[in-house]
Design brief:
The structure holds two protein chains of two kinds. Chain A is an all-alpha fold. Chain A has helices at 14-48, 58-71, 80-83, 86-97, 103-134, 139-164, 168-195, 200-210, 214-224, 226-241, 243-256, 266-273, 277-289, 295-319, 322-326, 330-357. In chain A, helix 5 crosses helix 6. By secondary structure, chain B is mostly helical. Chain B has one domain (1-32). Chain B has one helix and no strands. Classes of the chains: A mainly alpha, B mainly alpha.
């Protein structure tokens, strides 16, 4: 989650940068609202005409509209800075979503998620390195793919790249593979979840544990149901919280082999890599649990979170560029794809186990 | 390397903190009833 346009260092004035965000932001609003409008129009039409038709969430419409725009007419450069803010809205939305969780639920489900994440990360990192060797990928590219697919997608790759002194080329291959696989899982996970009749909690946990990028994990959860979306965000947030530890591990490993700079203060390193929105989410959840907000205020916060996610989902669709994704080398994609299938099956098994032996 | 890491950390931190700050500010405004009820 380090790719936001707001993060780009520039000598331009604050006003110029703020103005540059406007076209893309307006496009996010337009695409997201169009998705919401289509969902509501179909629901109203089918209800008025007594037609039985499955409700297709605004999430899917917003993503599909964005994907079609991006891959047919294309998105002019002037929209790019504003579109890149979709991860900013995702983080703000996750913090506000804390209002829909009691802290006890966060600790219970978050605790289960952390245990499952720890098991999944250990096994998936091992498997990814085995695959990297089998496909003769460069070791640092394998490290980036392993971090991206087992932790936090693109953000983890961006966090790990300078720490292990990886090439730009390796990072872009790994990012392209993770983005392509994220786009595929966005549409396949809900279908698999429905065919397996997973409960909202089990599916949400699975999506949060297996889908790489936070935006895609949130969308994959919300595509299943509102409740599944909530759980997916919580599970993914637990996974994100571990990003610093894994990147630190890799930094120490590559530094020990003389192929990356020395790691200084480890506590500072961990704090720099720690996603701060996790703390914001916990704070809002704590305040909601302590009765700081009245019921109508909690409803307002939950709706604010939905509006923020609306912009995020529009950005997810607008970001998918099928032509660019097709240009990447086949080997990183193959390693990523095999690894993703392994992680999806592994986490599905873990979620099944947790659903049967623990109370989700 | 430390300089690079510091620069990268500074770059990657800002949007995270801005997003948290914006969300907390919105929550405070809602709490103080300074925002109208948000509908979906």
């Amino acid at each position: 989650m380090a790719t936001s346009a707001l993060a780009t260092p520039t000598t331009e004035s604050f006003t110029h940068r703020a103005i540059a965000l406007v076209p893309g932001l307006l496009l996010l609003v337009a695409v997201g609202y169009a998705g919401k409008f289509i969902e509501q129009s179909i629901a109203a039409y089918t209800k008025a005409n007594h037609i039985t038709f499955p409700n297709i969430e605004y999430v899917l419409w917003a993503i599909v509209i964005g994907l079609i725009l991006s891959n047919t007419v294309g998105i002019p450069r002037v929209f790019a800075p504003g579109i890149a803010t979709y991860e900013f809205w995702l983080e703000a939305g996750i913090v506000l979503l804390g209002s829909r969780f009691l802290l006890g639920d966060v600790l219970h489900l978050g605790g289960i998620s952390l245990v499952l994440v720890a098991i999944a990360i250990t096994l998936s990192l091992t498997f990814m390195h085995f695959l990297g060797r089998a496909f003769k990928l460069k070791p640092k590219l394998t490290s980036l793919l392993a971090v991206g697919s087992s932790i936090c997608g693109v953000s983890a790759i961006i966090a790990a790249k300078p720490s292990i002194d990886a090439d730009d080329e390796d990072a872009s291959y790994a990012i392209a593979a993770i983005l392509a696989l994220g786009a595929i899982s966005l549409f396949t996970f809900p279908l698999i979840g429905h065919s397996l009749h997973l409960s909202d909690k089990a599916y949400g946990l699975w999506a949060g544990l297996a889908v790489d990028n936070t935006a895609e994990a949130t969308a994959a959860g919300a595509l299943y149901s509102d409740a599944a979306g909530k759980v997916a965000v919580l599970a993914k947030t637990s996974r994100n919280a571990l990003i610093g530890f894994i990147v630190l591990g890799y930094a120490i490993y590559w530094s020990g082999r003389g192929q990356a700079g020395k790691v200084g203060n480890k506590a500072v390193f961990l704090w720099n890599k720690f996603p701060k929105f996790v703390l914001g989410f916990l704070l809002i959840s704590l305040l909601a649990t302590a009765g700081f907000f009245a019921k109508p205020q909690l409803a307002s916060l939950a709706n604010l979170s939905r509006w923020a996610f609306l912009l995020t989902f529009a950005g997810v669709g607008l970001r998918i560029n099928l032509r660019e994704l097709g240009k990447q080398g086949w080997k990183p994609f193959a390693v990523g794809a095999i690894g993703e299938v392994f992680i999806a099956l592994l986490t599905l098994g873990l979620v099944y186990g947790a659903d049967h032996y623990l109370t989700l | 390397m430390p300089n690079t890491q510091t620069a990268v950390a500074r770059r990657s931190l800002s949007p995270d903190i801005f997003a948290v700050a914006l969300a907390l500010l919105a929550a405070l405004l809602v709490r103080l009833n300074l925002l109208p009820p948000i509908k979906w």
